[in-house]
Write a structure and sequence with these properties.
heterodimer; A: about 475 residues; Rossmann fold; 2 domains; 7-stranded mixed β-sheet; 6-stranded mixed β-sheet; 17 helices; about 45% helix; B: about 230 residues; alpha+beta; Dna Ligase, domain 1; D-amino Acid Aminotransferase, Chain A, domain 1; 4-stranded antiparallel β-sheet; about 30% helix; globular
Chain lengths: ~475, ~230
């Protein structure tokens, strides 16, 4: 069956049933996204009344398409499912080529009405008979930036070259709206966040978390896996799958239903068993699965895991250009309780004292430096180099509020030179926060474009650095336990 | 069908799996109570044995620090009387005589079959305010010795255990108990729930002793989720 999932991410031609010429409809956006991302093979809009949409000739039905079709996207009103399945039978009897259906349309089993369930049963019975895998219903679809597929109806403003940038993050979302929002948030960063594969699974009538996790487990283009989840009926099996994969590839989960009322809301939404959150939480911790608390936290952590090497441990130095943000960071750091402040060696102290402004605070308290607003671009960078060179330091949180008299661009370029060109980012993670807001998007873009992640606030750095340190500690602990 | 083992049965089962519990005996008359108490060392604790009475202390069905035979007989009468007044229809299985354990650090250990995850083990700060403090750590079973230690390290209890107020408590004994509880749950999937609270933990080398225990069993293994 895994072969069929290949057709989900790399299909030989795609039919869009319910394609529309009306730009206000999802059936239009899907076609626009598919053509926009540059899907290299054939796209067949299926629409009874139109002859052409976005320059693509329309077919009246699935059975009338002469070419091979491996992937079908359904975006029709749910009541039409019976006729479409009849037509699909005709096609399969003749051509037997369809491998995957993405049912984007809603108003199926999730409504818990007799009609909705009947529609979902009709879809699933037909699919099973022909060994077709089904994604959804009630989902926004799939994106694959490597194979250039985008069957979602999420509006995007990204230029084409930014759209197909591939990253190592593969993402699974149980909610379509969260999936769409995560895509849009990722696109809104200083440099749009690149993903590898992205899928919204909706009702999970067939393809579910475990199918996709196992697919991503062996997918060479996937470095790190992200998940938004509300619940899954086989909690134990899910945890065992996650636990197995987390030893090889980091997994970041945004699981909602943390509170009793949140769980009640989850149960009435996707119709899935939310399960006791305390047990999920314990299991995530037990098996090294990273649990993000917010959408931002999840995106930041996925990005950092994809872009940087893992630290050797949890000794994380706070290197700040200004007192306030440094203290703000220190509070968040201590409250998180996930990392330890390193004690750097006397040589490093001397190097810092020699290179930084005289008024700089070096290691008071230990593991913390405030280089002050009088620091030049060179001092910013050389001090960071000294800290990164110290063997007691596993990672650095770097915070700067670039003073008005310094060139932000020059700072961005100098950091890029140290981290990317001299290769420091490949040795230890550096969580960079350049404050603040839209005023620093340009300098962040210089870094992000060269593959270095940046963060909005010091607190965001702490969250992500803490998750990653804990993950590394888990892997080390596992290794030691297995030896014993 | 689910069934609550009574305190004596629960205690005996836990003892069988190597989890140290206070000595208990059931008595069915004043005279019987006196004999059983004398066979233990005074002081003893006496309480009602009845699955129908959940909050025994509040019902006046627990009397502690009983030091001689005369007090045993009086306590027997009082407990039976209070039980009958408190809950007329309660089935009374007898009056329990228990060794009065030396007070230790109050810990809770337990296990519950989660409908989705199967057996989950629990450890943390025990006593009557367990739900208030919520200083509890959970793990899916099975667990290793290191995992048992790691779960204790997630609780605030660990600081007390390791000498926050001078006394260093018997962490190894507690870990042993968690591992035995784990074995007990895995060997007997029909045990749906175990609660030992409080478990008195003593200083290093002196072990622990469970004072109160609840076990819920089921006659079918329905809730066990599939394993991958």
């Amino acid at each position: 069956m895994k072969e069929n999932l290949n057709a989900l991410f790399c299909p030989e031609n795609i039919a869009v049933v319910g394609a529309s010429g009306n730009p206000a409809k999802a059936g239009y956006t899907i076609l626009k996204n598919l053509t926009g991302i540059g899907y290299p093979k054939k796209i067949f809009p299926v629409n009874k009344s139109e002859t052409e949409i976005l320059g693509l000739p329309c077919s009246r039905s699935l059975s009338q398409i002469e070419d091979t079709v491996e992937l079908v996207v359904l975006i029709t009103p749910a009541a039409m499912i019976f006729d479409i399945m009849e037509d699909l039978k005709l096609r399969m009897e003749k051509q037997a080529d369809i491998k995957v259906i993405i049912c984007a349309a809603a108003d199926y089993g999730e409504t818990k009405t007799a009609e909705g369930i009947q529609r979902q049963n009709c879809l699933m019975e037909t699919a099973k008979r022909w060994n077709i895998r089904v994604v959804g219903p009630n989902c926004i679809g799939v994106i694959d930036n490597v194979n250039r597929i985008d069957t979602t109806f999420v509006e995007t403003h990204l230029p084409r070259n930014a759209r197909v940038k591939r990253g190592g993050i593969s993402f699974i979302s149980q909610s379509g709206a969260m999936a769409a929002s995560i895509l849009m948030m990722g696109d809104s960063r200083p440099v749009p966040m690149a993903m590898n594969k992205f899928i919204s699974i909706g009702n999970m009538a067939d393809v579910d978390f475990i199918d996709l996790l196992e697919y991503f487990e062996t997918d060479e283009d996937t470095n790190v896996i992200g998940m938004y989840m509300e619940g899954y009926p086989q909690g134990r099996l899910l945890i065992e799958t996650l636990a197995r994969i987390a030893r090889k590839k980091p997994i970041v989960v945004l699981k909602v239903g943390r509170t009793e009322m949140g769980a009640a809301a989850a149960n009435s939404h996707t119709g899935s068993l939310a399960g006791a959150d305390a047990v999920y939480d314990a299991a995530f911790r037990q098996y090294g699965i990273i649990r993000a608390q917010t959408m931002e936290d999840m995106l930041n952590t996925l990005r950092a895991l994809d872009a940087m090497t893992l630290p050797k441990g949890n000794r994380t130095f706070i290197y700040s250009q200004a007192g306030g943000p440094g203290i703000y960071c220190m509070d968040a750091y201590m409250e998180a309780g996930t990392m330890e402040l390193p004690t750097i060696g006397s040589q490093t102290r001397q190097r810092l004292a020699d290179s930084l402004p005289a008024m700089a605070n070096i290691c008071s308290p230990e593991g913390y430096a405030d280089i002050t607003a009088s620091a030049s671009v060179e001092q910013h960078v050389e001090g960071l180099r000294s800290v990164l060179d110290d063997p007691a330091v596993d990672a650095v949180i770097f915070i700067t509020v670039v003073p008005t008299f310094l060139s932000r661009k020059a700072l961005g370029e100098a950091l890029k030179k140290l981290l990317q060109e001299e290769g420091y980012i490949k040795k230890k993670p550096v969580y960079l926060c350049i404050m603040a807001g839209i005023y620093v998007h340009e300098v962040r873009s210089i870094l992000e474009d060269s593959g270095i992640p940046t963060f909005d606030t010091p607190a965001d750095c702490v969250k992500t650095a803490g998750h990653i340190a804990m993950y590394q500690c888990f892997l080390q602990k596992e290794a030691v336990w297995n030896e014993a | 069908m689910r069934r609550n083992l009574n305190e004596l049965e629960a205690g005996n089962l836990l003892t069988k799996y190597g989890i140290p519990m206070v000595k208990s005996a059931v008595s069915h008359s004043e005279e019987d109570a006196k004999e059983k108490a004398e066979a233990m060392d005074f002081p003893v604790v006496m309480k009602i044995l009845s699955s129908d009475i959940l909050h025994k202390t509040e019902a006046g069905c627990v009397i502690t620090n009983i030091t001689d035979a005369k007090q045993v007989k009086e306590a027997y009468r009082e407990i039976i009387r209070n039980a009958q007044t408190h809950c007329k229809d309660a089935t009374i299985e007898g009056v329990l005589i228990q060794e009065m354990a030396e007070k230790g650090l109050e810990v809770i250990v337990g296990m519950k079959h989660d409908p989705q995850f199967g057996p989950v083990i629990l450890a943390g700060t025990g006593g009557i305010y367990v739900e208030v403090f919520e200083d509890i750590s959970l793990r899916l079973l099975p667990i290793t010795r290191q995992e048992a230690k790691a779960m204790l390290e997630e609780t605030k209890l660990i600081k007390i255990l390791r000498g926050a107020r001078g006394t260093v408590y018997d962490e190894d004994a507690l870990i042993d108990i968690l591992l035995r509880l784990s074995d007990m749950a895995l060997v007997n999937p029909l045990i749906r729930e175990i609660d030992v609270n409080p478990l008195f933990l003593y200083e290093t080398g002196k072990g622990a002793k469970g004072v109160d225990a609840l076990i819920v069993t089921s006659d079918s293994d329905t809730g066990h989720p599939c394993r991958g």
